[in-house]
Write a structure and sequence with these properties.
A hairpin with a 2-residue loop joins strand 3 and strand 4. The protein is globular. By secondary structure, it is of the alpha+beta class. The termini are far apart. The chain is built from five helices and six strands. The longest helix is centred in the last third of the chain and has 28 residues.
Length: 176
C-alpha cells in the first residue's frame, strides 16, 4: 500500500489480443509525459526503472541490463543499465570511473556519468548510465564499472584507515 504522499498511476487495458500493445503504448505515453518534467539527464534512470518494473513489456534482459528505447534517441532500441557510484563519507566518488573509459569503449558501450541532480559529471556524481546494442556488452561494461567501484572503495578505505594505499595493502596482506 502506497504512503499518503505517494502518487500511484494505474494503467488498465481490456483483455484481448491487443492488451499488451495498449499497455506498451500507455507506458510510452507516460514516459513521454514525464520527460517533459525531468532534467534531460535524469531520463536514463527513469527509462531503466520503467523497463525493470515492466517485465512483460521488457522480457529481453542480460544479467544486469534491460532492453528499452534510448531516452536520448527515442527511435533507437538497445540494452541499458545503471551502476551506482560509491558514497563514502559525505561524497559520491566518481574520478576512478574515468580510468575505465578505454575499456568501456572496447565493449561497444557508451556511458553517461550523472550526479544526483541529473547533471553531467561533477564530483558529486551518483550513478553511471550504460547503453549498448548487445546485452553481453552492457553486462561486461557493468562488470568493469563494478570492479572499479570495488577497487576504489578498498583503496580509499585502506588509505583513510591506515594512511596508505593499495600497494602497501598488498605488502601487508601478502602471505609469507
Amino acid at each position: 500500500m502506497p504512503s499518503n504522499n505517494a502518487c500511484v498511476i494505474r494503467i488498465e487495458t481490456m483483455p484481448g489480443k491487443f492488451a499488451l500493445e495498449q499497455l506498451r503504448s500507455a507506458k510510452i505515453e507516460l514516459e513521454n509525459i514525464l520527460m517533459e518534467y525531468l532534467n534531460d539527464n535524469s531520463i536514463g534512470r527513469l527509462f531503466h526503472h520503467f523497463a525493470l518494473s515492466c517485465r512483460h513489456l521488457h522480457p529481453q534482459r542480460g544479467n544486469s541490463c534491460v532492453y528499452q528505447r534510448n531516452p536520448w534517441q527515442l527511435n533507437e532500441m538497445g540494452y541499458m543499465s545503471v551502476v551506482e557510484l560509491p558514497h563514502i563519507g559525505n561524497d559520491f566518488h566518481v574520478s576512478h570511473i574515468f580510468s575505465t573509459l578505454s575499456r568501456i569503449h572496447k565493449t561497444g558501450c557508451t556511458m553517461k556519468v550523472i550526479d544526483r541532480f541529473g547533471r553531467f559529471p561533477t564530483r558529486f556524481a551518483s550513478h553511471v548510465w550504460v547503453w549498448g546494442k548487445r546485452p553481453e556488452d552492457v553486462d561486461e561494461a557493468v562488470g568493469i564499472l563494478n570492479d572499479a567501484n570495488k577497487q576504489h572503495t578498498q583503496n580509499w578505505s585502506w588509505k583513510h584507515t591506515f594512511g596508505f594505499g593499495a600497494s602497501a595493502q598488498k605488502m601487508l596482506t601478502r602471505p609469507n
